Amino acid sequence: MSDHGRFQVIPAAYVFLLRPGAGAGSGSLYAGADTAGPDEVLLQLRRGTGYYDEHWASGAAGHVEPGESVFAAAAREAREELGVSIDASMLHPLTAMHRTHGNGQEIDERVDFFFACREWHGTPELQEEKAAALAWFPLDALPTPVVPHELFVLEGLRTGTLASTVAYGF
User: Fold this and answer.
1) Using one digit for the tens of pLDDT, what is the confidence trace for 97-140?
2) Domain boundaries, the chain
């Protein structure tokens, strides 16, 4: 049990790398432009993790470490999982999600911070063995299945209906 008795949530940072859709050109450094098609998002196929294996998920995500800001955690996860360098000022907050699995287990009480990033240095490549593939997908043609709470965010991003703070699983 935590030092605060019954109060506990586990923080995590998610980074959705976005690039212009078909016809607009792309590269490892993108600062924004008009696109001919919907934005594309970089997703990884989870494998060997024990959590939503064989589901597509954010290219970079993970827990916020003690003493680390959520922005620093997002940049660290992008470096560790994708091999790209992100300046924290390039992270654009999408939503904060208070999430539960409703099973009463402390590990499943979460607060997730989702970011979009359109500017990074380097070429995204898998850096860890917990993913089987890495691919770009148009926001209006996502693969299946996508981790459910991440799909909720991506659909909200695509439709422009994503609130700054959401609850999921309650």
Assistant:
1) 999 987 877 778 999 999 999 999 999 999 999 999 999 999 99
2) 10-168
